Amino acid sequence: MYEYIKGSVVSVTPEYIVIENNGIGYQLLTPNPFAFSKYEEQTVTVYVYQHVREDVLALYGFISMEEKRLFEKLISVSGIGPKGALAVLASGDPQQVVTAIEEEDEAFLTKFPGVGKKTARQMILDLKGKLAEVVPEFFPNLFQPDLQEKKAGSSNELEEALLALEALGYSAREIKKVSSKLKLEQLSTDQYIRKGLQLLLNG
Fold first, then answer.
1. What is the DSSP string of 85-118?
2. What residue ranges define each of the domains in the chain, with the CATH number in brackets?
3. Which residues of the chain have pLDDT under 50?
4. CA distances (Å), 118 to each of 80, 128, 181, 200, in order?
5. What's residue 129's pLDDT?
6. Residue 67 has what pLDDT?
7. Cα separation of 203 and 200, whole Å?
8. Which residues contact 137 (CB under 8 A, 6 or more apart)?
9. pLDDT given at position 154
10. pTM here?
11. What is the predicted pLDDT for the residue at 133?
């Protein structure tokens, strides 16, 4: 079982990043791959969860141990797989997720791809009151401040962000609805993704 991998970010795609360590490239599925863009060709520590099934062997990467632990909590809920958990974490605002669970806000939780009323109810039943150990004070330091660095946006960055939203499970109709609003912004790919997710979650 892997705990973390420390290496160079050699590739960033809408679905995963590649970390090279001692000549081996590890493909890591992450909530928001473009959060790692500024670390390309730099050394970074990525916390890893290894997912094994009969037909699947995949590695999931996270920017912090707390984020990894929340991922593990989410996939422990019946009806939520790794892809669904990534979509929840990709919102970039764990406080909203934790608050929704604690306040039994099913309407908010069902806005995530693949989360219906039954799954939202199961999340509340399984996780309410059990997240304090992994999300102290609602993850005040979950997403590192330097990942928020603003840079000039471009059509290429917007396209990458829309591909990432599609990879998370949002439909073409949902993506088209928010893309018109995103086009008005000048953001980095990472920021486009987070802005898009907030628009999708807020309806």
1. HHHHHTTS-HHHHHHHHHTT-HHHHTTSTT--HH
2. 4-62 (2.40.50.140), 65-138 (1.10.150.20), 150-201 (1.10.8)
3. 137-153
4. 11, 15, 31, 20
5. 86
6. 85
7. 5
8. none
9. 54
10. 0.69
11. 67
